[in-house]
Amino acid sequence: MPNAPLLEAVGIGVAYGLATALRDVTMRIEAGELVCVVGPNGAGKTTLINAIAGLNRINAGALRIDGIDLAHLPAHAFCQHGIAVVPEGRHLFTSMTVRENLELGAYRAGARKERVRQLDRVLSIYPILRERLETPSGRLSGGQQQMVAIGRALMAQPRLLLLDEPSLGLAPTIVLDMFKVVREVNRAGMAVLIVEQNVAMALEVATRAYVLEEGHIVAEGVPADLLRQPHIRRAYLGESGPD
Amino acid sequence: MPSAALLGQSLLSGIFVGALYGLLGLGLSLSWGMLRQINLAHFALAFLGAYLTYQLGLAGLDPFLSLLLIAPAFFLVGIALHWIFDRFKVSPFNSLLLTFGLTVVVESVIQGIWTADFRRLDSPYTALKFHIGNLYFPFAGLLTLLMAVALSVAVWALLRYTDLGKAMRAAAEDAPIAAAFGIDTVALGRMLSGLCAAFAGVAGVAIALTYTLAPSQIYSWIGVVFAAVMIGGLGKPLGPLLAGIAIGISEALTMAVTAPAWAPLVSFSLLIVVLLTRTRRV
Amino acid sequence: MRGVPAPVWIVLATAAFGALALFHLPAFYESFIYLCFFWVVLATSWNILSGYSGYFSFGHAAFFGAGAYTTATLANDFDLPFLWTLPAAAAVAALLGVGIGAVVFRMPRLRGELFALLTLAVTFVLATIVSNTRLDGGPGVYLSGVAIPRIAASPSTTFYLMGLIGAAATLWIAQAVHASKLGLGLFAIHDDEDVAEVMGVPTFGYKIAAFALSCGLAGMAGGVQAVFISYLTTGETFSIILPLNVVLMSVLGGTRHWLGPAAGAVVVTILLYAFTAGGHPVAGRAIVGLVLIAVILLMPSGLLGRFAPRAGGRARRRAVARAAIEPIPAEVEGAPLLAVHGLAKSFSGLKALDGVELEVRRGEILGLVGPNGSGKSTLVNVVSGHYARDAGRILCEGRDIGGLGAHRIAHAGIARTYQIPRPFAHLTVLQNVALPARFGRLAMDRHRAESEAMHWLAFTGLDSKADALPQDLNLHQRKFLELARALASRPRLLLLDEVLSGLSPTEIDHAIETVRNIRDAGATIVFIEHVMRAVMELTDRIVVLDQGKVIAEGKPDEVMRREHVVTAYLGRPHA
């Protein structure tokens, strides 16, 4: 029997009141994979990431990490099971310093004792943050805030790192650097799930991808195959007919 | 122009009453700033603590011992209050209305048990005072100042330097993301709410030591303490204390230089100015 | 009950109570009923601003006190006959309210709890000033020397009748406001002030008007009460108990019903009295407090909340023929309908719009596209007046609308939908759509607005939901409600902000056809969308935004093939 995937979502559904944001979404992430989910605006990508991070309640289906059922756990338990998120728009604790934000990433029991060593590791990835450790994080530039957000998630020493539209609002060179870091972190063994609008960049780093449209998965596969399919071009650019 | 001694004494009494504003404001500021609950019942709770101190005093209990009993008991009350707000998803504005109802209930209970007659704590500490030169320092005032400073600084240090405090700040700023990083925001909220109620109890002991008690007095503190809380900045532990003392001193000096009756104008005019000029949402 | 209009009930009740005066009840009962009338006036007047619009004031005592002391001063110091002091009392209180409102209502931060605190602070400031000046001076003011007019046989009957007239007048005014355009506007402000402003409600003016009425009535009650109790002290007059009582009574009775505060006032006064007479006044207060807590937790809309009539009045529903849409008349020829030059808008240093230049031609459907964060919604928000611009000009048919308040921009004929629907949660679907018709460019009266609204509801397929609340609609229906609402004011320029997102393919087809019909009827449309299929099918021209600037403009299929546009959307791959 093949190894169970690290993260498994089976037929999950999320609804806000009467509006359905996700329906019947089934996907999996193996340990060490870099999976990305692409799709047009309003497709439900953020809802999906939030559901996996514990920020949204699931109304239907099952969500498991390492076989453990997550659906009935309180939000703060998700981190304990090895999930860390870099939310869309970063959501740093802006009134707190860079150091405090990073240290809070390691709040969960199990990560706290490794805190000093992890902080060092994060600062070696992002040396520019070293001189800004005591700066209130709200004052940093967009790119630097993104570094802190990713650093904060890394401090939790997760087994699965979630990134929600990490390139949003950032200049292309910064986006490039960011994806480089993500790729390295993945090569070191961490599973990564990226939800992205920047399709080209995302498909370059991913080992596998899903296409999400109007709340459910319409395609899955290896990036090269997906790019050849008309799905993505049509969804984003509106070209009608086969390529 | 009043004499130096009179001015000096006014300054002192302003500091002492300001410290009490700060002590009362601490719990209010924290629950409003960090939990988004405006707890009008904070004042009624403080007075309940004052009356309990009085009653225990009748039984022969030293006010310090009463403090050790009252604070933990009120901590539990705070937890219960947080549970209610959570369970019924009470909005910040409705928390104002709800705690007003609670204020009326508590005030009625107080009046029911202790009647509207004036009550004065029977303890050697109430009349105790120290003389240094021309000035006298009432023990009750010094104790209030000490407790206000100690608690404000302790909370400030807790929030600034401890993991728990930082987690509380994170939860106050962005609860869902804090939870995503393993912070149990509900438990922290309960703890903070309990702490605020315990602080009300401590303020009550200070009130019992300083003043003669009557149930209607609950309402007379509301305005000036809200002024101290807003001027000091919501959720900032040192804010109510510093603002409270500033207000207390201004009031006392106004009273000494003009007529006593002009004193309330100071704090409320300050409050209006603060409300009109603060550029971001308080 | 249904058929009889409210004003008739008020008149009948007044007549009944008036007749009661002929029975020469013991003075005690008359005084008690007078007290009920008194609280009815205070609570109902408070509700006109605070309940209807959501601006909960904790300062009602300030206006009550202003009226009381005006009467005291005029009667004692100037020997003005008691009845003549009452209009003055009302006027002074109203002016005080207008003065405060003029400063505070322009500040969007000062809503909710902060407004409550500010009004409370004003009360204390006023109390201190009154207490320290000749107005009171400290020991209080005696009015026992004031001659009570001989309206009835005894003073207590006189006050009974004055209280009755005051209560009747106040209820009449509250009911009239509730059923009027002012009331509809206030209820919209309650639900979403910013959207109300964008739909054409003159929010500042309406709040001032409601506040003036509220304060004036409280002042009048103050004047009467001053002579009734015949001894004023600042402590009692400006006490915090008054606003707290008034809030309690209104919340208990229901703030959305014009009769709610009165019902609450009567219940609380009787309750308090019953316990006082029974020797348990304290228990009575405790019960009242518990009732307030229970109401907040379990019955937030109050006792009469469920029975609240529709704000803005109810027009008789006329049958709506599926008539053809009348074309919107063309106005000035030549100039483009909308021209934007050098438009800039930043949020905390982030440039959302960075010098946008574009023009919208009459009768076209202009597509506005661009990746996330490019500034499309910000552009709509600035043009419609939801945000103020930082720089640049916005010309509507040559006229600069850039500096106008949002409700004036609505009057100029610009309407928009919200990407995430923002209906007025407590108004029915019909009321939501009728509102812009009443407050927009054509300022229709109630009947015409409601039939106009029914017309657009039929057009968008929502006519069966006319009496439902927005929360009962699904996303698709809410999006169409946004659309119907934007159309109801017969705008010249319609800004559609992602109307299609979240819709299923068939719903999108239906929406595309609807939008086409709207343009064919004569509207000009700016169409922000991510659903490319719709953009291609519908638009005559498109403009591409990226990072706050226009990067391309032209025919849809041609523009979307340009390399730099493709790059902006999909990103450039790197080896």
Key terms for this structure?
heterotrimer; A: about 240 residues; alpha/beta; six-stranded mixed beta sheet; four-stranded antiparallel beta sheet; 10 strands; disordered C terminus; B: about 280 residues; mainly alpha; two-stranded antiparallel ribbon; 2 strands; about 75% helix
The chain-level structural class of chain B is mainly alpha
Task: Tell me the distance between the termini of chain C.
Answer: 77 Å
Pair with the biggest interface: B-C, 43 and 43 residues
Largest sheet report of chain B: 2 strands, antiparallel
Overall, the morphology of chain B is globular
Kindly state the mean pLDDT of chain C as a whole number? 86
Please bin the fraction of helical residues of chain B: over 70%
Low-confidence stretches of chain C: 320-325
Cα radius of gyration of chain C in angstroms: 28 Å
Give the tally of β-strands of chain B.
2
Global mean pLDDT of chain B: 90
Q: What global shape of chain C is seen?
A: elongated
* Structure summary, number of beta strands of chain C: 12
β-strand amount of chain B: under 5%
- Helix proportion range of chain C: 40-55%
Please provide the ordered H/E string of secondary-structure elements of chain B: HHHHHEEHHHHHHH
* Tally of DSSP helical segments of chain C: 21
Q: Into how many domains do the coordinates of chain C divide?
A: 2
Low-confidence stretches of chain B: none
Structure description:
- The complex is a heterotrimer of chains A (243), B (282) and C (575).
- In chain A, helix 3 runs parallel beside helix 5.
- A six-stranded mixed beta sheet of chain A has the order 6-7-8-3-9-10, sandwiched between helices.
- Chain A is an alpha/beta fold.
- Chain A has nine helices and ten strands.
- Chain B has 282 residues and is mostly helical.
- Chain B has a two-stranded antiparallel ribbon with strand order 1-2.
- The mean pLDDT of chain B is 90.
- Chain C contains 21 helices and twelve strands.
- Chain C has 575 residues and is of the alpha/beta class.
- The longest helix of chain C is centred in the first third of the chain and has 27 residues.
- The N and C termini of chain C lie far apart (77 Å).
- In chain C, helix 2 packs across helix 11 and helix 4 packs antiparallel against helix 8.
- The interface between A and B is medium-sized, with 29 and 18 residues.
